[in-house]
From TrEMBL:
ATP-grasp domain boundaries: 147-369
GO molecular function, one term: ligase activity
SUPFAM superfamilies referenced in this protein's UniProt entry, alphabetically: Glutathione synthetase ATP-binding domain-like (SSF56059)
Swiss-Prot/TrEMBL keywords: ATP-binding, Ligase, Nucleotide-binding
Stated name of the protein: Peptide ligase PGM1-related protein
Protein origin, superkingdom: Bacteria
Biological source species: Streptomyces lavendulocolor
PROSITE patterns referenced in this protein's UniProt entry, alphabetically: ATP_GRASP (PS50975)
Gene3D superfamilies: ATP-grasp fold, B domain
Length: 445
């Protein structure tokens, strides 16, 4: 049966304070939702906040074989798909004449807003309806709740604690700095490192995964830290924060798992390492599959991730989930987050499967990078063809565009797929050189 895909990233059920999202934040989230085009099949429908550029849809269809005339796109041209917008006539009316109860429902996240949206269309939600209606998927996405569940089930997590008040924060930071040089403060429900900051007594520390760093000369003076966390002596107006020991030099890694609805054993779908940008030093892309950690660390990570997936499944969660950890240079592993939703690799895995086949990770490396400044998509695609960078099905290597926002922010997400990491790195270097040349041309913003 056809599927209804819903691009409901970062709604009121996913972030603590939507009113604090900037226009730049919203653009980045819209950029993310355009990736869902790679998951479409003939006859499907897709609800996204803003229209997909036709040139991008044609680029996707060229590689997937999608019949673009058979799909149904609903885009109210708004910021984000909050509940009021999902239940507007502008969104529901076009779907009521198309969607039937037999359709599959595929939201980005199965939050409470998506549940009531499915109910309005007579669609069945996957897994335990009670669990989802009560906010179960959102619960698992909370860093505060994750630490409690992980610690209770015996998973390795960084030393630390969740903080709701100033007293919580000062106690936790002081205690951790007495045993380590650095700690990280993370907003409970935020995205891509936003709201994260590091506190350190090491003046030479190089930080990744956080937007700002506070270098303390006196560990007892936490005034700036308290102000940045946004807590009060009685409550957390911006949401709770998690304080954890910060382990420098670690690799940030993930696995994507599938928790089947029929209760069968969860499976690993894909794995990878996070790629970090220079300014700011936060998530900027992924490298798949994960091969950069010791074999014993991989065994522990994969086995424990499946154990975590089984725990989620027993609670009532089904579908895709992403499990994040950090691995030290010595191979020590700490879990730090679960995202009970589609992830940043869902579309990448689909792209690789489409271009190479289901066992693509046995033979290929995938490198992605997003928010890359680029010329208009049609111009960029011509440049890829002219420089022998476009995906070549015979050589089984090349570049495709995973998301296009050149009409609004002038950026793209690209994917480099090659039979080895060295070949992928060489293709990426050539691509970056072409993009740098394009940025230097007169008239390029």
């Amino acid at each position: 049966m056809p599927a209804l895909w819903l691009g409901n990233a970062c709604t009121e059920h996913m972030v603590d304070r939507m009113d604090l999202l900037t226009e730049e934040d919203c653009r980045a989230l819209l950029f993310t939702m355009k990736r869902l085009a790679w998951l479409l099949r003939d006859g499907d429908a897709l609800v996204v906040p803003r229209p997909l550029p036709q040139s991008f849809l044609q680029h996707v269809a060229r590689h997937t074989g999608l019949d673009t005339s058979s799909i149904h796109l609903v885009s109210p041209d708004v910021g984000l798909l909050t509940q009021d917008r999902l239940h507007s006539d502008e969104v529901l009316d076009p779907l009521r004449g198309i969607v039937t109860p037999e359709w599959e429902f595929r939201p980005y996240i199965h939050d409470r807003g998506s549940v009531t949206f499915a109910q309005a269309l007579g669609l069945r939600t996957a897994g335990s309806p009670g669990f989802l209606t009560e906010g179960g998927a959102e619960l698992l996405n909370s860093k505060v709740v994750f630490r409690a569940l992980a610690a209770g089930a015996g998973f390795s997590v960084p030393a630390g604690m969740p903080c709701r008040t100033i007293n919580d924060l000062t106690h936790s930071v002081t205690r951790l700095l007495s045993r380590a040089a650095s700690v990280i403060v993370k907003r409970d429900r935020a995205v891509s490192g936003h709201g994260n900051f590091v506190i350190t007594t090491d003046k030479d520390l190089e930080v990744t995964g956080a937007l700002s760093t506070y270098h303390l000369t006196d560990p007892r003076n936490l005034d700036e830290v308290v102000a940045a966390a946004g807590l009060t002596s009685s409550h957390a107006p911006l949401g709770e924060v998690v304080v954890e020991e910060f382990h420098p030099g670690c690799r940030s890694v993930y696995v994507e798992v599938l928790c089947p609805e029929d209760g069968t054993e969860p499976t690993l779908v894909n794995s990878g390492q996070l790629r970090v940008g220079q300014d700011p030093p936060v998530l900027a892309g992924l490298e798949l599959p994960l091969t950069s950690i010791p074999e014993r660390s991989w065994r522990e990570f994969s086995e424990e991730s499946l154990r975590m997936a089984r725990l989620m499944q027993r609670l009532g969660y089904t579908g895709l989930a992403n499990i994040d950890a950090v691995v030290s240079p010595a191979g020590e592993l700490w879990f730090n987050e679960v995202n009970a939703r589609m992830g940043g690799s869902t579309h990448l895995h689909s792209i690789a499967e489409t271009l190479v086949g289901p066992d693509w990770s046995d033979t290929h490396t995938l490198l992605s990078r997003f928010n890359v400044v680029a010329p208009p998509l049609r111009t960029l695609l011509k440049e890829l063809e002219a420089n022998a960078l476009a995906w070549d099905p015979e050589r089984r290597r090349g570049v495709v565009i995973a998301s296009d926002d050149t009409d609004v922010s002038g950026t793209v997400e690209y994917v480099v797929l090659a039979p080895s990491r060295d070949q992928g790195a060489a293709l990426e270097a050539k691509l970056e050189h072409i993009l740098a040349d394009a940025r230097r041309r007169p008239g390029h913003a």
